[in-house]
Amino acid sequence: MGLDYHSHTNTAIDTLLKKNMDQEIEDIQQKLEVHDEILLAALQLFAKNGYFNTSLIDIKDAAGINTIGIIHKQFKTKQAIAAKLYENIHNSLSHSVDEIKLKNENSSEQLRAIVDLFFKLTEDAPDVMRFLLITKVSEFIPEAQALCDSAAVKKIIRIIDEGISTGEIRSMSSQLAYAHFFGIIENTLRLKLTGFLDKKAEFYQAQAWLAAWNAIVKK
Amino acid sequence: MGLDYHSHTNTAIDTLLKKNMDQEIEDIQQKLEVHDEILLAALQLFAKNGYFNTSLIDIKDAAGINTIGIIHKQFKTKQAIAAKLYENIHNSLSHSVDEIKLKNENSSEQLRAIVDLFFKLTEDAPDVMRFLLITKVSEFIPEAQALCDSAAVKKIIRIIDEGISTGEIRSMSSQLAYAHFFGIIENTLRLKLTGFLDKKAEFYQAQAWLAAWNAIVKK
DNA sequence: GTCTATACGCCGATAGAC
DNA sequence: GTCTATCGGCGTATAGAC
Fold it and tell me: C or N terminus of chain B, fewer CB within 10 Å?
């Protein structure tokens, strides 16, 4: 499913399989499916109409469920749905950055891979990106941190720091480099997600990368 | 007041003064003051806690008013308060861009003046900038357009178009130039407004301008 | 014209029946 | 375990008293 692009769901199912509860697996799988149906429906509605304009009734309808009682069984509160979405998305993102750091050596390659991921997600899972770039989560999840304070971004800033150390990136505050670099990338994607830029995301990718990298590269 | 930096209020009062309703002026001025107190309180609360987390009771308290009935007399609905805020801010912004175009000849000078304005507003009227850059108005004002579709931004894109015509700016889609240029500017300000960048806005201005202009200038 | 009291609707959450 | 019925609270809006 779109919101959890690193197969958190499959991992959960795999874990359960190892417990040899064969006869219960079908039920559990169905429960997991319902669980994810709710999350997916909520993500879409939150991204489209906003958290406060989305009622549990709306989520119930979109998820193909009969009563909101089922939602209350899976998640105690409406806020818990949003918190779970937030957690899944940020965990996946953080995990992706880890993988990217392992597979790429230079800061430029790592940043390039992150940009690739962001553009790919914008095309394949726009609601995930809306949740990341547009939604103001702190308004409905008090304990949530903004994107810029998330684990993933802390790792990205580390990448930038390393790039400055090796001389790939110009000597400057890594936070400022982050602001400039991802200002271009995220704004391009934000304008794509809102329809201001109307071509496919990939169309803007090369130029956005070039402009962003050029803003921080040591010449 | 902070939300209407082009003296819309004074203009309104001036208009009324010309009507020779001398004996009523005091009352009217007080009414206007209450009117603006409500708008200012609403702006601050919307920017801080969000529209949906702000009740009319909250606005009443923050505005130093005794009952919410007064708010209902001035604005029919809560949404109308937000709509009026939106209108004032966008009108002021659009007017500012007009003035900047009159006072400056080149695209670079005009964009530079707009950047100056944005940084100044971020320092002097942060809640106005939060409303412009962070708040998702379409969630509570259905008829509102996003910043990128506003009159002010249309004028800004015209500035960019002219810059491309004169050869100041690199030949590229003006929308893309807008995305890259204001990606850097707005992201810097957004990160300043959320506290990720902790120095005064002016501290980041020169570098942000340089990086943004460099992203679109013809070399 | 200011304020009090209240109406009304919506939604989140619960509990109990099947 | 699934659903129905309902509770309780909040927040907007109104209407009527002073």
Answer: C
